[in-house]
Task: inverse folding
């Protein structure tokens, strides 16, 4: 028998979570219900976040942008705030699954599901986003870079709830790009995805954040390449070197979706293209 | 021939029902007291079955019965062979090993059924499947075709000396002599891998046994309801009139639903009779990946001999064909490959030798194309290589070798899948190719566009592939056409329907004869209670064989109508016309009688009739072609490929079909669109990944990707009509045509797009990843 709990607000949700074997949080269900199909016995009890208003909305607050964990991919894709300030995230959301999946799937689910190929994660890491976790007894803030432990594993405890994600309001001169390669144009898991957020001044890289998905057990940054690019003036030669450097900074695997060599190659290509698009700005 | 209905873009009669969800599919059948079945299937591809313990499953609340092979007693029998080996070929080896209802001694492919649970609901049945304990002794699996034939390989069937299932040799002329004279001989190994048909609807069966009337009704997602009925009758010892098989609307057949009998098809009716209860089994998608037949795995070592002006002197093809764990479908698929590997070309010297190999994989039976795409892929790849080596244009080398129009009927001197001599009935190939070249703007593209786009850094390539397709094979089909008292026409035929638009194209054939509106012709397919002679829907034969049977019946009814109307209207038959549901005197339109009134008069309640009179306006007729009609077509494509990621986009897609008389262009185009999308899957997306243990690694639609709307181009369809002399309608089949040339087309267009990269493609399916791997050695060399 499956138990379904439907708390009316955040407080009640946190109370229901504050027990020994807490129920599983169910947001859009687009990951969880797929998982449950193979192991129904592992998912005896669900806590449905449908009515928890505190998890909704995309706001500009002070100098930060705050996104409730229940924001759907569709909301993110079409958010005028994100289109204006963080297009890298809006574009990543637009690349997810299909319209139906984007209408149901949430940012919170995408993060906590912690797939190495999750499409929002590189964009959020490139924006240096912070996750806001609540339990009944405390609240903590974890930078997303430190949030993931491995495929499907995060620092979020079973008694905790991801309430929101926030990041500093990007400067109007910043530039962000998200690129993804999947086996098919829609409804396809990424073979490689990359997000780049950078601030350029006359083609010189003031700073840059590079995040890559599906090339390691978790989404990763490319700190060596980032540091190397900093302060340099972008040129086709420089981009070619960055491409080669990124290839070596990642540790992809071969599975039925792709081989190591292809993933390495394509990661380099995507970085090259992301940087080229910065160059054309 | 001027026609009123045939050849017109008539909207489909069946669509309102389908689009509003009113059409009946097998899973829509609900019967009071119905039980549900679930299967325990083997996780191992090859394992000895040591013991099964079903006691816990039987105890579970809601479980009605559990059956294993043991429980079937003497009723446990391998399925009947669907097709017997060719009797007309000398020295053919064929070991018939048929699928079993439930595994008894040894599992031969992953997903093979071991036990069936019957319960009050599918949920309970699935849970009870988990309760069953099985002890296996895992065995090394036979996966690789070549290793499977090596001495010392594990055996799929222990009673055989090797995994060789069949061996067949065919020849025409003298290849070795032709080779001696050749200026160029090209030898290559070309590999084609396996895919799934991936029909939208999985398989399903509902059975209802009525003990009192001793009557069995079976709803089955089969392409061949009549042979299923005949087989059940034989196995279950019932009278033919006591078994009714209904194939209602089916969400795609594509060949695998022509496999007879699937273990479940035998077992579910048997269980229904044992338990005296209605039973439903609906295959789930994972089962479909393991238990529904697949196709295309072949390895060819092939050689072509040419003169320096590009004439093909001879072809030699030695190949291995993967048949999976059993071979109930005989040699149909490899025979089709042999019959298509010469393509539409005039090849005088030919040798072909096939070894069919048993493997520990899901059974192989025809999937849309049925061996033909492999043959076409081989010859077209060889011609592309030959053209390059000889410095001849890709189109010119093909044009030079096409069978000329005056050579028909063209005898190929080998046997076809029906074990009859392969004869191509009719054709005029070059105009079809020419039309495709015009539509795609071939010369313009090569001369101007490609260089211009390349200068912009775009890798755009073109492909043009001609192909032929044997269609409309025998033995026969029949139909009964009846004018009802309402004036509407009822037509019953034996074949089943899986989306081909039979309710419309067949209605058009009848409307043409009887002068009624297409929507006033009701077609019944796939119900043995309505018509019980025939074989099924396969080999692109519905329109040709059933269509001509319907045409023949409707023509007889027309004669009956005219005869009766002539008597009643007191007008000679020649002065009558059938229009708008009436028989009218030409030029005196108010002097008329409706078909409904005539039907009533033809079935009087009182009075004497002449001896020999048949009541009603009804006729049953049959059509069996002398041999299959051969259709022809050409596909052309322009694609752009990202030279780094190998992701591609189709810019233009053109098909020109010559399938003889076009019954309804709308339906024909639908068939082509569906076929092309399947071909695109075969070419660049769909591949089943079996590991060395015979486990299918991508048995879900998350990992086995079929092309979706975002991958499919707009498909432009052109028509040329060369009527077949073999049937009155002049029709040829087209159901598989869309799929056949696509892998060859992709290979050619990709090579053309990347013509600076020294690429030679010798395999299909491809994928971006695979293409990258094929190019990598070249890149490393050039560094
Ligand atoms: C057909 C299909 C296509 C897809 N395509 C893509 C794609 O292209 N790219 C991509 O990245 N993903 C894709 N996905 C995966 C999925 O849609 C996304 O990861 C989605 O964002 C998950 O969100 P959800 O709300 O549905 O999560 P759920 O399934 O509800 O939850 C996922 C996990 O997160 C946990 N969780 C959810 N909310 C919270 C919370 N507030 N606090 C703590 N834990 C929480 C759940 O307990 C669960 O473990 C696809 C899925 C399907 C079925």
Result:
């Amino acid at each position: 028998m499956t138990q379904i709990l439907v708390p009316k607000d955040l407080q009640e949700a946190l109370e229901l979570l504050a027990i020994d074997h807490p129920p599983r949080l169910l947001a859009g269900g687009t990951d969880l219900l797929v998982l449950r199909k193979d192991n129904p016995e592992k998912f005896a009890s669900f806590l449905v976040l449908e009515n928890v208003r505190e998890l909704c909305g995309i706001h500009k607050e002070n100098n930060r942008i705050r996104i409730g964990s229940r924001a759907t991919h569709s909301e993110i894709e079409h958010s005028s705030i994100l289109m204006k300030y963080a297009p890298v995230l809006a574009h990543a959301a637009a690349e997810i699954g299909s319209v139906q999946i984007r209408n149901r799937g949430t940012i919170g689910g995408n993060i906590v599901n912690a797939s190495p190929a999750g499409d929002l994660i590189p964009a959020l890491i490139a924006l240096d986003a912070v996750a806001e976790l609540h339990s009944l007894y405390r609240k903590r803030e974890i930078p997303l870079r430190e949030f993931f432990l491995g495929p499907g594993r995060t620092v979020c405890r079973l008694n905790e709830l991801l309430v929101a994600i926030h990041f500093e309001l990007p400067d109007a001169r910043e530039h962000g790009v998200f690129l993804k390669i999947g086996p098919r144009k829609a409804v396809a898991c990424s073979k490689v995805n990359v997000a780049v957020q950078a601030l350029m001044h006359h083609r010189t890289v003031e700073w840059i954040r590079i995040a890559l998905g599906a090339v390691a057990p978790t989404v990763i940054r490319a700190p060596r390449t980032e540091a190397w690019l900093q302060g340099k003036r972008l040129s086709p030669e420089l981009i070619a070197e960055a491409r080669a450097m990124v290839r070596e900074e990642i540790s992809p695997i071969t599975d039925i979706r792709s081989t190591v060599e292809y993933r390495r190659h394509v990661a380099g290509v995507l970085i090259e293209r992301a940087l080229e698009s910065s160059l054309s700005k | 021939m001027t026609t009123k209905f045939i050849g017109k873009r008539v909207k489909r009669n069946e669509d309102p029902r389908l689009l509003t969800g009113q059409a009946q599919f097998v899973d829509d059948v609900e019967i009071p007291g119905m039980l549900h079945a679930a299967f325990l299937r083997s996780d191992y591809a090859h394992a000895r079955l040591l013991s099964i313990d079903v006691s816990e499953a039987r105890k579970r609340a809601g479980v009605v019965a559990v059956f294993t092979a043991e429980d079937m007693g003497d009723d446990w029998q391998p399925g009947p062979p669907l097709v017997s080996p060719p009797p007309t070929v000398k020295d053919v080896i064929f070991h018939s090993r048929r699928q079993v209802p439930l595994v008894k001694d040894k599992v031969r492919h992953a997903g093979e059924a071991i036990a069936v649970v019957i319960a009050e609901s599918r949920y309970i049945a699935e849970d009870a499947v988990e309760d069953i304990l099985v002890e296996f002794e895992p065995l090394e699996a036979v996966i690789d075709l070549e290793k499977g034939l090596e001495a010392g390989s594990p055996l799929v069937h222990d009673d055989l000396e090797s995994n060789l299932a069949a061996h067949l040799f065919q020849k025409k002329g003298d290849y070795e002599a032709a080779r001696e004279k050749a200026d160029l001989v090209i030898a290559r190994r070309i590999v084609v891998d396996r895919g799934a048909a991936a029909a939208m609807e999985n398989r399903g069966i509902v059975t209802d046994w009525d003990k009192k009337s001793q009557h069995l009704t079976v709803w089955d997602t089969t392409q061949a309801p009549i042979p299923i009925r005949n087989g059940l009758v034989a196995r279950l010892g019932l009278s033919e009139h006591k078994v009714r098989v209904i194939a209602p609307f089916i969400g795609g057949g594509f060949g695998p639903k022509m496999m007879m009998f699937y273990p479940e098809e035998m077992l579910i009716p048997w269980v229904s009779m044992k338990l005296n209860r209605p039973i439903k089994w609906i295959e789930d998608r994972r089962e479909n990946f393991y238990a529904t037949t697949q196709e295309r795995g072949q390895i060819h070592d092939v050689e072509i001999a040419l003169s320096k002006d590009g004439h093909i002197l001879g072809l030699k093809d030695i190949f291995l064909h993967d048949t999976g764990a059993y071979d109930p479908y005989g040699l149909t698929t490899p025979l089709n490959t042999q019959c298509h590997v010469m393509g539409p070309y005039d090849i005088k010297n030919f040798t072909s030798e096939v070894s069919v190999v048993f493997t520990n994989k899901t059974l192989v039976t025809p999937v849309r194309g049925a061996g033909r795409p492999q043959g076409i892929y081989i010859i077209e790849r060889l011609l592309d290589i030959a053209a390059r080596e000889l410095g001849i244009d890709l189109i010119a080398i093909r044009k030079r070798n096409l069978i000329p129009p005056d050579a028909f009927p063209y005898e190929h001197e080998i046997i076809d899948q029906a074990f009859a001599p392969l004869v191509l009935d009719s054709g005029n190939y070059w105009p079809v190719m020419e039309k495709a070249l015009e539509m795609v703007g071939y010369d313009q593209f090569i001369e101007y566009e490609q260089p211009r786009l390349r200068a912009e850094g775009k890798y755009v390539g073109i492909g043009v592939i001609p192909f032929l397709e044997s269609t409309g094979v025998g033995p026969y089909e029949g139909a009964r056409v009846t004018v009802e008292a309402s004036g509407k026409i009822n037509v019953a035929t034996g074949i089943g329907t899986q989306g081909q638009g039979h309710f419309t194209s067949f209605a058009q054939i009848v409307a043409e004869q009887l002068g009624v509106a297409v929507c006033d012709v009701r077609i019944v397919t796939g119900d043995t209670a309505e018509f019980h002679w025939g074989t099924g829907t396969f080999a692109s034969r519905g329109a040709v064989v059933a269509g001509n049977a319907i045409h023949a019946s409707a023509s007889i009814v027309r004669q009956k109508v005219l005869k009766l109307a002539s008597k009643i209207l007191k007008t000679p038959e020649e002065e009558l016309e059938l229009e708008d549901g009436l028989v009218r005197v030409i030029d005196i339109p108010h002097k008329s009688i409706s078909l409904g009134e005539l039907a009533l008069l033809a079935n009087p309640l009182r009075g004497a009739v002449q001896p020999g009179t048949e009541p009603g306006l009804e006729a049953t007729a049959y059509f069996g072609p002398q041999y299959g009609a051969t259709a022809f077509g050409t596909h052309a494509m322009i694609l752009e490929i990202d030279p780094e990621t190998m992701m591609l986009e189709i810019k233009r897609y053109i098909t020109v079909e010559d399938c003889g008389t076009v019954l309804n262009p709308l339906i024909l185009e639908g068939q082509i669109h569906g076929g092309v999308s399947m071909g695109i899957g075969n070419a660049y997306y769909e591949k089943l990944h079996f590991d060395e243990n015979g486990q299918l690694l991508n048995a879900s639609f998350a990992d086995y990707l079929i092309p979706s709307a975002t991958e499919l181009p707009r498909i432009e369809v052109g028509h040329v009509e060369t009527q077949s002399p073999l049937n009155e309608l002049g029709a040829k089949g087209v159901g598989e045509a869309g799929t056949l040339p696509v892998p060859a087309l992709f290979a050619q267009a990709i090579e053309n797009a990347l013509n600076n990269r020294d690429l030679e493609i010798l395999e299909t399916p491809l994928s971006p990843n695979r293409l990258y791997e094929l190019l990598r050695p070249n890149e490393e060399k050039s560094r």
